[in-house]
# Entry
Amino acid sequence: MSSVPIPTMSHMGHDHGHGIGHASERALLVAFCISAGILLAEVVGAVVTGSLALLVDAGHMVVDTGGLGIGLVATRLARRSPTAQRTWGFQRAEVLGATAQAAILLAVGVYVIISAVQRLIVPAEIHSGPLLVFGIIGLVGNLVAYAVLLRASGEGFTSRAARLEVLNDTLGSVAVIVAAIVLMLTGWERADSVAAILIGLLILPRAIRLLRETANVLLESTPPGLDLDDVRGHILELDHVIAVHDLHATLVATGVPNLTAHVVVDDHCFSTAHAPAILDELQRCVAEHFDVPVEHSTFQLEPVSHRRHEYEVHA
# Structure
């Protein structure tokens, strides 16, 4: 079988820590500390005020603080060098952490809405003054954490999840503050339950979206923004290329797309030493032409006669 593979990632000199830097890690650490502080304040506040909205937001904060902790661990793992056993290193740790985080958030969101509906039916006595104070504490802390993450974090799954978490925590704090003001002005105790429902509704769409995105990575779906039909068309336009099959593209982690393909070329390319030039063209094509540049790619060049030896040919 005639095959000419592209050099491996280590030969190409790429850094596997795409999109994951020390600035992002520091931002996550700061956000984690702030989130943990808000969590403690909200637990105390829920006990003092008897507020379901504050208790629900504290539960939300438990998940989000844990999520930020997972993000910190995943960020550090993702920077570890590849080994013979783990050729991509621990880059998938980011995706696994975000998937676990999304699944937990989904469960919390459902629980929050069910509990809030029950409290709508049987309202409880709420102390509006302390509720307002703890809501403001949460709002200020979340705004600071969000500003830190927005300034320093990247576009990876971990960074995006962290920003979404803190943003939704901020909106949850706003809901708590509004509920406290309504309760203070009108005495309507169900305002607390309405705020809890709103917080739950903020959680669910985010959790579902993040779970869908990370599941696509784990299922090795084509990276978003990369059209394989377009890739195939451009490869077929190259001189001496006759056909393309077994074309696959996956996303290892944020910013690390990987593409492989079998490319059938004229038989004389192997006798005239033209195959290396075609290989260079293929590599340059997928790395520079598309909106999603693919720096990690492997092409198997085949003569036309090799096709009848293939065990199974995929599109």
